[in-house]
Amino acid sequence: MSANAILNDPDFRKPGADRGLLGVLRHRHLLSLLLKKGISTRYHGSALGWVWSYIRPAAQFLMYYLVLGVLLGGRKDITLFPIYLFSGIVAVNLFSEVLRNTTSAITDNKSLVKKIYLPRALFPLAAVGVGLVHFLPQAILLLVVTLIFGWTFGWLAVGAFLAGILLILTFGLGLGFFFGAINVAYRDAKNFVDLILMFATWASPVLYSWELVYKHAPAWLYNLYMVNPVTAAVELFHTAFWVPIAPTDARPTDILLHTAIAAVIALGTLIIGQFTFRKLEGSFAQNL
Hints:
Helix 6 (about 80-105) runs antiparallel to helix 11 (about 190-200). This protein is an all-alpha fold. The relative contact order is 0.14. It contains 16 helices and no strands.
């Protein structure tokens, strides 16, 4: 077959051509291999291994509960403050895990990126999968604790939980695509992400009630705060685990509207992040 015939063949694709997230669907086996690699190497050489997935959130909860709940009296202002606190911590931990993993996904796999061609989007997606797997022990622990306090199955709670996860994964992956692509050439991106994650817990209603922001912040700042996808996801986790056992009328006003806007922001972030990633991925091998 002549060269022109090959180029005109509808099945011909330029080597290294990438269809982004859609192209990943054609490489599910490679994605599963990268996911297994990430899971198996996460705690490689660690004596406690997967136990750390329980120790870290438990240590976070204990520290925040003692300082904010006991010393500063937060447990008096919020009914069942331990459940409120822990459900928020679990949500933010998932966001932190996804964003940190995806930001370093390309640099952590530089030997593969430099030697062979794989759709580059496979690496951030596998990193999201690893973060989700390591989120499961925390979610199970949260469910067990809430069951002890009287949580019962409800479709609203399940729907809110799944919606919160989807919102976090979409927003975290979008940011991860963006900062992960920039991080290949400029390692400052990872430091910038560390700053974002340092404020993530305080910038959402995890350690305090949304009412504090509503009462003390200007209306425009409150609305901006509530459409933050992480804030919306935390409130969805509260709806799933805290509200069923601590019924309260003190729910955010226009929560459905704020959540819908947050979902649009998360989707927009994913589109921008994917666009940036595809624009820069051609130079990954050279910059690594």
